[in-house]
Amino acid sequence: MKRIAVLVAVGLSASAAMATDFNFEDVPDGPIFGDTLVLTSQGVNVTFSATGLQIRDFGGAFGNAGHVLSSASDAGPITAVFSQAVLSVTFENLINGRYSGEVDFIDGWAYDANNDLVDSVSGSAADFLTLSGPGIVRVVWQEANQFEGFVVDNVSFTVPAPASLALVGLGGLVARRRRA
Length: 180
What we know:
It is a single chain. By secondary structure, the protein is an alpha+beta fold. The protein contains 2 helices and 11 strands, in the order αβββββββββββα. The protein folds into 2 domains: 1-16 and 160-180; 19-153, Jelly Rolls. The strands form 2 sheets. Strands 1, 3, 4, 7, 8, 9, 10 and 11 form an 8-stranded antiparallel sheet that branches. A 3-stranded antiparallel sheet has the order 2-5-6, with no helix packed on it. A hairpin with a 2-residue loop joins strand 3 and strand 4 (44-49).
């Protein structure tokens, strides 16, 4: 049984698909109607939502970073819902360290389809913030300290490859047969 578990774990890590990015450059700047933006990549719909959701054009003060996603107050929360379970989600916070040397503190949570917490992060955000774990269908990012603010850019997520899903199913069948 332990060998099967090891094979499943190795298969999951080795066959995960390449990361997918949303950089928001193709989305016009300005407020997002209905505070909801849906983007699709590799067959996965990702629904971003927040109060006052908007695309901002970050000019020279941020190294001509281009378009970023933000909430009305840049404090969030910003939620991303995935139409298919993913293994990890990463975003870049372009404000961190680029505006008056500000260091942002961001809280993040990842949930599965049962609304169980899969991963969380809290603390000083480096340029990139990652949440990972099996079966992520929703993530929430929020500024931990009032009046600091953060923006979202270069969102990447990893989708399990079909081979990974097959190995998980095989592992479940072997475990059932062994118990019988």
